[in-house]
Structures are given as structure tokens and as C-alpha cells.
Amino acid sequence: MRSECVLGATSDSGQEAPRDTWFLQGWKASRRFLIKGSVAGGAVYLVYDQELLGPSDKSQAALQKAGEVVPPAMYQFSQYVCQQTGLQIPQLPAPPKIYFPIRDSWNAGIMMVMSALSVAPSKAREYSKEGWEYVKARTK
Questions:
Q1: Per the domain annotation, does 134 fall within a domain?
Q2: Lowest mean per-residue pLDDT among 76-80, 99-103, 124-128
Q3: Could you say which residues form the signal peptide (predicted)?
Q4: CA-CA distance, 66 to 74, in Å (whole number)?
């Protein structure tokens, strides 16, 4: 079994690992962390900048804006990739137009959750009573 290349670690042959390998492994891990952190930070900034966590009107407008901007950007990117690599990417059909009212779905979801929470105590009492009756019937 091969051991990890860390400072002072030995390999399978019993020789000490080169001192620069632990630095390179640390750099790879920190580079991945920096990339993932940058993507996450960018996403948080985008959500804050576009006010997506604000009123649903602004969220709906941002969704419509994204629906208008993303398909042309993807087409341009695919054309760029074709030019740079010489690959032929088949033309995809246009995405269907979908109207998804966020406000209606959000309100329906909140109402379902609140409804479930409001009946939870009575349902818990009902289920525990049924369970108790079942246990009493089996122990006789």
C-alpha cells in the first residue's frame, strides 16, 4: 500500500518522499478550495446583486431575464467551441417556453407546510392512540 506524500513520510521502498511533493499536494488542494470558494462567492454575490431573495416580483423578473439571456449565450459559446476545436456540434431544438409563476408556487408550498404543521399534533395523538391499541391487542 502506498503511503501519502507528506513531509517526512516514506514511500513503499522505505525512502523519504521528496520535500517538494507535500507542497505540490497542498497547492492542488488549496487551488481547488479557491476555485470552489470563488464560484460560491460569485453565486452569493449574484443572488444579492439581483435581489433574488427579496420580493417575488423581482425574482420573477430575474427568471424571465435569465430565460432571455441564457439561450443566446449558450449558442454563442457553442459556436466559439466549434471554431476553436473544429468540432461540429449539432443544432439543438429551441427550448420550450415555460411560464412558471413563482409567487403562486411559493404561496402554495407555504400553505401546504403550514397546514401540515397545524394538524401535526392531532395526527400524532391519533397515530399514538392507534399504536397503543395495537400493542394492547397483541399483548393479550
A1: yes
A2: 99-103
A3: none
A4: 12
Q: Judge whether 57 and 104 are in contact, CB under 8 Å.
A: no
Into how many domains does the chain fold?
A: 1
Residues spanned by the domain of 116: 103-139
Is residue 121 one of the residues assigned to a domain?
yes
The reported pLDDT for the residue numbered 23 is 56
**How many Cα atoms within 13 Å fall on the side-chain side of residue 26?**
7
* Cβ proximity of 52 and 58 under 8 Å: yes
SS3 16: strand
Which residues, in sequence order, are CB contacts of 52 under 8 Å at separation 6+? 46, 58, 59, 62
Grid cell digits, residue 21:
511533493
The answer as to whether 111 is a domain residue is yes
CA 72 from chain center: how many Å?
24
pLDDT 10s digits, 16-69? 555 556 555 666 777 888 888 898 888 888 888 877 777 777 777 877 887 788
Helix ranges (DSSP H) in the chain = 19-49, 56-85, 102-139
